[in-house]
């Protein structure tokens, strides 16, 4: 599958399922494959680990293109999808970087759905106080 084809397939999956965990994404596109990869934020905040690099690249490309949105998730959503990381779960963004890695669970959503919901609620994407 080419990069564009993988991105299209991934975006279609997120559109069809909405509020997609990386666990569900991993299962659907990579099955039980585990690689020594991780998606992480500064401060020892791990989003997901073990996903094949082409999937990571596709997710990051879709986020960069503004076609996907990543929102804070929770442990229950990942348990429902049958996979969790063996790390402490971050309860709220830290003031200082974590000394050890912590898992920051997120959910993926189609950006057009997020924007449509913001428009319906009267929230301006540039002014969340409205």
Helix-strand blueprint:
Blueprint: H1 3-17, E1 20-21, H2 22-30, E2 38-41, E3 45-49, H3 53-64, E4 68-72, H4 75-80, E5 102-103, E6 106-110, H5 111-121
Parallel strand pairs: 3-5
Antiparallel strand pairs: 1-6, 2-3, 4-6
Helix pairs in contact: 1-3
Kindly describe this structure:
41% of the residues lie in helices and 18% in strands. α1 crosses α3. β2 and β3 (45-49) form a beta hairpin. The chain has a three-stranded antiparallel beta sheet. It has a three-stranded mixed beta sheet with strand order 2-3-5, with no helix packed on it. The protein has five helices and six strands, in the order αβαββαβαββα. The protein is an alpha+beta fold. The radius of gyration is 15 Å and the shape is globular. The N and C termini lie far apart (42 Å). The protein has one domain (3-121).
Which short descriptors sum up this protein?
130 residues, alpha+beta, 3-stranded antiparallel β-sheet, 5 helices, 41% helix, 18% strand
In short:
This protein is of the alpha+beta class and 130 residues long.
Cα shape = globular
Our count of domains comes out at 1
Order of helices and strands: HEHEEHEHEEH
Instruction: Give the distance, in angstroms, between the N- and C-terminal Cα atoms.
Output: 42 Å
Largest sheet: 3 strands, antiparallel
Please report the total strand number as a whole number.
6
Structural class: alpha+beta
Q: Approximately how much helix is present in the residues? A: 40-55%
Q: How much of the sequence is in beta strands? A: 15-25%
Could you name the ranges where pLDDT drops below 50 across 5 or more consecutive residues?
Answer: none
Strand order of the largest sheet: 1-6-4
Mean pLDDT: 92
How big is the Rg? 15 Å
Number of helices: 5
């Amino acid at each position: 599958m080419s990069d564009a084809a993988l991105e299209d397939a991934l975006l279609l999956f997120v559109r069809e399922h909405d509020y997609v965990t990386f666990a569900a994404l991993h299962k659907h596109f990579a099955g039980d494959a585990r690689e020594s990869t991780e998606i992480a934020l500064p401060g020892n905040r791990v989003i997901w680990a073990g996903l094949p690099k082409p999937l990571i690249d596709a997710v990051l490309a879709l986020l960069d293109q503004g076609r996907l949105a990543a929102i804070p998730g929770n442990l229950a959503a990942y348990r429902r999808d049958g996979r969790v990381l063996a790390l402490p779960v971050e309860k709220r963004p830290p003031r200082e970087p974590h000394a050890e890695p912590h898992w920051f669970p997120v959910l993926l959503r189609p950006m057009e759905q997020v924007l449509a919901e913001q428009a319906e609620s009267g929230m301006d994407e540039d002014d969340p106080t409205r």
